[in-house]
Amino acid sequence: MKELVKYSRLLHKKGLISATDGNLSGRLPSGGFVVTPSGIPKREITEKMLVKMDRAGKAVSGKASSEWQLHKAIYASRKDVGAVVHAHPPYAVALSLLGRSLEDCPLSEVRISLGAVKLVPYEEPGSAALAENAARALGKEGKAVILANHGAVAVGRDIRSAYYRMEALEHAAKIYYHALTLGRPKPFSAAVRKRLDEIAKIYNSGRSLKKR
Fold it and tell me: Radius of gyration of the chain from Cα atoms?
């Protein structure tokens, strides 16, 4: 729980959220999860304010974030996910307003560390439809998605990895945004995308990369 508080404050410090924006959660051994509360600025959250949810999505105590369904849907579809971070990163959201994501972003580190970051069509914040669409877009191996006209979601085995994926997503979005203002970024060829995906599998498995 200390880690949730730590990264909640870091999200604010890094400008990935403002005021009461965003929410974070961590899976519990019981099958439920602990999530940040509703209406409290992330820089002011304490451990006592965190809300425990049972596996059915019912708050054991306190008032959970209005986006709790988003977290529940992801945990239900991904047994490998131990934490979820939902933020409103400015550059990633700006790209979504233009109907863009990082799915075809020609940055090698993005393809390797985050994979193809999809754009989830707009649905009302906090709705079951948004939760289901985000979980579906993440699929069985996705690490992050951008929510159109809203924000972004990153997942990981723990809150630390989920947070840093969100940070990496926004850094990439910033680079892509600036590239788009300068012209038309040259996309990767199909062969390069395939090779980067191969490298990603090795990178994420922890094995050593063999040169071709």
Answer: 17
